[in-house]
Amino acid sequence: MRRAPVARVVGFNLAVLLAMLLAIEVGLRLAGVRFPAFYRPDWDRGYTLRPGASGVWTREGRGRVTINADGLRDGPHQPRPGPGVLRVAVLGDSFSEAVQVDLEQTWWHQLEQRLNTSNPCALRRGYPQGVEMLNFGVGGYGTGQQLLTWRLQARAFQPQIVLLAMYLGNDIQDNTPLPRADKPVFRLGPEGGLVIDNAFRASAGTRFRFSFLGRALNELLNRSALLQLANEAKNRWSGGQPLVAPAPAPGRPTMHLERDDPEGWTVTAALLRQLRDEVRASGATLVVTSLSSPEQLWPDRSERQRVFREAGQDPFARERRLAGLLKTLNVPYHPLAEDLQRKADQEGLVLHGFQGQNLGGGHWNATGHQWAATLLARRLCAPGEGP
What we know:
Layout: H1 3-30, E1 39-42, E2 46-49, E3 54-57, E4 63-66, E5 86-91, H2 94-97, H3 107-117, E6 131-135, H4 143-152, E7 161-166, H5 171-175, E8 185-188, E9 194-197, H6 204-209, H7 212-223, H8 225-238, H9 262-281, E10 285-290, H10 301-311, H11 317-329, E11 333-335, H12 337-347, H13 366-381
Parallel strand pairs: 5-6, 5-7, 7-10, 10-11
Antiparallel strand pairs: 1-2, 3-4, 8-9
Helix pairs in contact: 3-13, 4-9, 7-8
């Protein structure tokens, strides 16, 4: 006799809860609070950018982000380069994805403009319609995932140059063949060849993301502002970052010092050799640049020098080691860190980090992107410097 009243109470409470959730959803949409999911699971690379995703990135900096139909943080591009166009494919990580700034401020977008307006420019010789840059950068990718991106995506766009942008703050560690639950790793086989390890596909997280429920939740997340807010809070909490950015705390830079990582360097060498060979086989040329890490450009010059001196480290040890490796592979190399440090010291510039968000640390800000593009354009346009 009491089941009907209980059912009505439960039904009423559920209706109230749904109404509240709907009201919160509508309120968040009206207030413009959105944290879109820019990534989706990928069976080959672990994850990729989600085609068609758009929104404002606020975890670091503030960038208006749109992912094009091909899954690139870039504008639209035709499948093939036009006549007289030099097409350059950029392979990179979060410094090339560059969600911290607007697209027009990214280094590769500004590099395209500088290459097309610099006169003379040796790189542009023979291409009357100029240079077209395509950005395949994805945050968190190491050289192995960049090799896979070349095979699975970038090669189809028929670039004449492949520009690999390496971040030596973590790329060598990313290439070390340690077990990963979120992406594949490369190892050296018994005869020294590269072997891909896709053990990540068996991880609980990957199995869930590719399950029916995981796919459904992923799609729902893309449509619900409330779920996006909850997901953003979860991501920031797990990463130790609050929803509201703390005030800057100047002090010692976070150091990513050179350490003896022979396995990481050995795999990196094999990956670069493989990428060079596959790019050449397509008729294109591989060119490598390396970016800067925060400790190399720390705004307090005396503090920066003291930390490196106490550690007994050369701030550009990784760049020098990579230069030697690429010389043996006959691959053009254009490191930026030393030139960027010189420019920052001369003009008192802060090239990493954002006001109110760990100024001096993290990714390049708009000024960092600007000077990276300027200095790299000078290198590529100089006679005898380009590929």
